[in-house]
Structures are given as C-alpha cells and as structure tokens.
Amino acid sequence: MTASVPNIRHLAALVATVRYGSLTRAAKAVNLTQPALTQAIARLESDLGCVLFERCTAGMTPTEAALLLSPRAEAALAHIGSSRVTATQLRAFSALARAGSYAGASEETGLSAASLHRAVADLGVALGQRLVDRRGRSILLTPAGERRAKGFGLALAELRSGLDEVAAWQGKAAGRIVIGAMPLSRAAWLPQAMLRFRAEAPAVALSVVEGSHAELAGPLREGDIDLMLGALRADSALDDLAQEPMFEDRPALIMRAGHPLAQAAALHGAALAQCEWILPGRETPLRGYWEDMMRTLGVEPPAIAIECGSVMTIRQLLVASDALTILSPAQLAVELDAGLLVAVPPPMPVARTIGVTTRLGWRPTATQARFIAILREVAEEDFA
C-alpha cells in the first residue's frame, strides 16, 4: 500500500499549472520561483515517463495525462491538508499507522526504524501536532494522528488511482484493485466476477482482503480498500459510505444430515429454541434476522452456544454435532452437494440484500468501474 509516492511539491506544481495555464501564475500560487516550478514539472514528467504540458507562447496546455492525474493530485493534496508534508513523511506515517509499531512499518516499507522515527518526528514538528504516543514496543495514535492517518490513507488512494489512470493511458499495466470481501461474497459471486475480469484485464492485479463488515469498514474509509462486498447495512449507520444493492440472498437453516429436525414436517419455535445455535455476532444482519424469526415464532431467542463468523469453523461444528445455523446455501455448497449437511427452509422467509459498498463520493478509475460492472453482470445472470 505504500508504493512510490510522487513528490508532494511536484504534485502541487502540476495542479497549479493545470489550473492557471501559466508558469508565472502557477509559481506564485505554490510559492515557488518559475525555474523551480519548471524543474518540478520536468521531474514529474521524467518520473511518469510522459509529457504533461505542451509549451507554447500562449502558456502551458495540459496533455491527457495531466488532465487524468491533476484531479487526483488535487484531491490528494486536500486530504494531506498541509504543504509542509513530504512524500517520505506521508509514506512513513501511513505505514506506522497501519502496522502499529516501527518494527512492523520497517518491514512493510523497507526503511530502517531510525529513518521512520526521524520522518514521523519531523512530520509532527512540521504540523505542530503530537501524532503518536509510545506504548512499550507499540505505538498509539493520538486523535490528531488518527485524523492525519485517515487523510493520508485517502490521499494515497487518490494517488494510486491517478497513477493507474496515467499508466492505462500509456498502455501499461493498470495497477491493482483491493477488494474487501465478507463471507457470502467469497462463496461464488466474487470468484466468478474475478475470473471474468481477469479474462478481460490479465495485467491488473486483484487483491482480496477477507473479514467482517466491522473489520473491513475502517480500511475502506481510510483508502486501504477500494470496495467492499457483502450484506448491506442500514443507511442511517453509514453516512460516509455508499451502498449499491446487487441481489437478494435467502439464507436457510443448515444442519447435519440425519439431524432430528431435518425431516420434520414443520419447524416450531419451541423445538428451535431447544437447539444449540452457531451464529455470527450481534452487529450482523443475519443475527438480527434470526432473532426476528424466533420472536415471530413466539419464543425468545435462546442464548447462543457458539458465536462465530468463520464458515470453515461453522462447517466442521455442524458436521460433528446437532447444532444449527442460518446461512446462505451457497456458502456451504460443497458440503450440501456431498450430503454431509442439509439446508431446510426457515419457518419465516429470510432475505438479505447483498451488494457493493464504497466511500461516499469515491471516483473509480475506468478499470475499477469495469470490475464493478462485471459484479453487476454476474449478480444479474447467476444470483437474481
């Protein structure tokens, strides 16, 4: 996540030159001399391997590459929030915030712990803020540090997107897409979409980060993840995230083959309340659906025997016991097809909306937009 970061002053020079179309006005806007601004543009062009401006008597005319990168750079500068921050400081502090220790950040970046210490200390001085507190061998971000870490993460996400767009324009491999995947999406929907996308864009790397909504929402908000797939949440709780429904999933009661309730003519609340249940945490929609179902059947939800969100663990527990769960059959398709487990329709129909969650106002690259379009296609063809 901390690949090469362009020089921050060079990015500011780019943005100003695109905005004003004049070296003189741009240099004044970013407090550089005209020769220094010209050199900054030249260095950025050298780093990118392309021309950013056509020089003429009327001024500086941005090329397509400059028009692709400039809006991303402008957004990144706004997230960084200070002209005093350097690319080295940005990279170092972002790595430290993710790793939680200088040793972990050193391993991630390849920078020495001493270099990281110095960069983070210089950043704190430049911003006039205490960003970290030491806790033994680990560190804890201060409130100011947490705000800066989020802003830097979003800045890096914008820069990655901008550089990917320029690379795609140049006909080079266009970066990577980082996907946060909740359990249901990993069963069939995401793999099918990934295979179809890879057939179209084999040079684009796909990275899947697994976790629950609670585990993935933070990295999504901070720019480490591009999009998140799984069960959607109530809009009122996600004022900074955008959700797009893709399809409806209808979970079933899952139990071992030969379970006493597998052949029952009807499932009654009293019988279900006597069973041991394996369910995900209280914050999940599935847990809420189950509680509503039990109350609709006239019983209070019993205590949960095992609270677990791992499908692999749940599978083993179901096969070896009389416990029940409620899950999408797609998540246990192999065991159901093999006859190890059976799926029974719940006495009250249960449905949950599955879709894509992104940051509010997120602007996908053309490559990211195409991946989302493929997710829509697969959902409509195979899951509608």
Question: How would you portray this structure in words?
Answer:
The chain is α/β, with parallel strands linked by helices and 384 residues long. The radius of gyration is 26 Å and the shape is elongated. The protein has helices spanning 8-20, 23-29, 34-48, 64-80, 87-99, 102-109, 113-127, 143-169, 183-187, 189-200, 213-221, 269-273, 285-296, 311-319, 333-337, 366-383; strands at 53-56, 59-62, 132-135, 138-141, 176-181, 205-210, 227-231, 241-249, 252-256, 278-279, 306-307, 325-327, 341-344, 352-359. The protein folds into three domains: 1-172, Winged helix-like DNA-binding domain superfamily/Winged helix DNA-binding domain (Arc Repressor Mutant, subunit A, Orthogonal Bundle); 175-248 and 360-384, Periplasmic binding protein-like II (D-Maltodextrin-Binding Protein, domain 2); 251-350, D-Maltodextrin-Binding Protein, domain 2. The chain starts with 7 loop residues before the first helix and ends with a helix. The mean pLDDT is 92.
